[in-house]
Design a protein that fits this description.
This protein has 375 residues and is an alpha/beta fold. The protein is 63% helix and 12% strand. It is built from ten helices and ten strands.
Length: 375
């Protein structure tokens, strides 16, 4: 099998010589000294892989990569950026324009070979899969009509109405994209963004966060496509750029998907906001009720203490003055008994008041339970 061809693009000759020395035993090396020369050479005969410097006169490496990705025939061509700059921003910029890998100078020979082998192996797998499935793809494309794809979207419209949480909408959107054969990641906007199918610290998440500030509704970068609405952004990492018909149709579908998601997300956000308002009102009602119950409890205790004191004083005075009334012993005993019966009724009433206070406390506990369930 003939050696793969690697194009080295760098405006500094010594850098090109160094890379040639590292690679010429295993690969065919083609050199270009700037971006325009690279684009011209790629147009005439595309290599198997490009090692591309970032900082060059006339055109930066990012501009060169972006131009290459705009051509369907080179949309999947492996491009490894070689740069002296090693910041997250630079790596993100390379990723956004469609770079495959990013390595920094001074170049580690083992790491370079590892990146090259990995990129070429991936490309080989893609090409082999295309060859093996070309007949199946043609059959599938005949069956996968626009109406069947719209059927997935219509099913999404129905099922989305039953989803009551934000993440569920993002997950369902990715599921529909998967039905189209697309790998999707979603970011739902908010004070605490929700990411679906990508980690919050991943490169995909950073691309989605940056795209949130864009004025465009859809952006295409090689095999990657970004679409968004007012409430979410969607990243597709494997658009079929080699099939213009499906590519265009899928872009339309993505805009429809994000619009549908937008409507449902806005509805869920409104429901959550209303629930928060209800919870706030309920909390204020409970606070007022708690204050009134406490005030009533204090008044009942005060009334009970006052009544008890008055009754005891009355009994003491009655016992002290009975002999002055000229009553016989039976009559005195009857009066005293009536006084003690009244006192017992007051004590019974005190028990009922304590029971009422306990019941009011139970009511408050029930209100707090309702409040917690609304949270």
């Amino acid at each position: 099998m003939p050696n793969k061809t690697i194009m080295v693009v760098d405006d500094v000759e010594s850098n090109r010589v160094l890379l040639r020395m590292m690679l010429e035993d295993d690969f065919n090396i083609v050199e270009c000294e700037d971006g325009p020369q690279c684009l011209e050479a790629v147009a005439q005969s595309a290599p198997d892989l490009i090692l591309l410097d970032v900082n060059m006169p006339n055109m930066t490496g990012y501009e060169v990569c972006k131009t290459i990705r705009q051509n369907q025939s080179t949309a999947t061509l492996p491009i490894i950026f070689v740069s002296a700059m090693d910041t997250p921003e630079e790596r993100l910029a390379g990723f956004e324009v469609g770079g495959t890998e990013y390595i920094t100078k001074p170049i580690d020979n083992d790491l370079l070979m590892e990146k090259i082998r990995f990129s070429l192996d991936n490309l080989n797998e893609i090409n082999e899969a295309k060859k093996k499935t070309i007949d199946a793809m043609e059959t599938a494309m005949e069956a996968m009509t626009s109406s069947s794809e719209l059927g997935l979207i219509l099913e999404f419209v129905k099922s989305a109405q039953e989803i009551g949480h934000l993440r569920g909408i993002g997950e369902k959107c990715c599921e529909v994209a998967q039905g189209f054969g697309l790998n999707a990641s979603v970011m739902i906007f908010g004070h605490h963004p929700i990411f679906v199918n990508c980690a919050p610290d991943s490169m995909e998440a950073r691309v989605l966060e940056r795209f949130q500030q864009s004025k465009d509704r859809i952006v295409n970068i090689g095999i990657r496509t970004l679409a968004k609405s007012d409430t979410m952004a969607l990243l597709i990492s494997n658009m079929p750029v080699d099939d213009g018909t499906r590519y265009g149709r899928f872009k339309d579908h993505l805009l429809v998907l994000t619009s549908i998601c937008d409507g449902r997300l806005l509805a869920i956000q409104a429901q959550l906001s209303l629930a928060d308002q209800r919870k706030d009102v309920l909390a204020r009602i409970i606070k007022m009720t708690e204050s009134q119950v406490l005030n009533l409890s204090q008044k009942l205790k005060q009334y009970d203490n006052t009544t008890k004191s008055v009754m005891l004083n009355m009994i003491s005075e009655l016992e002290a003055k009975l002999f002055k009334l000229g009553l016989d012993e039976d009559q005195e005993e009857q009066l005293v008994a009536l006084a003690y019966q009244a006192n017992e009724k007051l004590e019974q009433l005190q028990g009922e008041l304590e029971e009422l206070e306990s019941e009011l406390g139970t009511v408050l506990e029930g209100l707090y339970e309702v409040l917690n369930n609304h949270g």
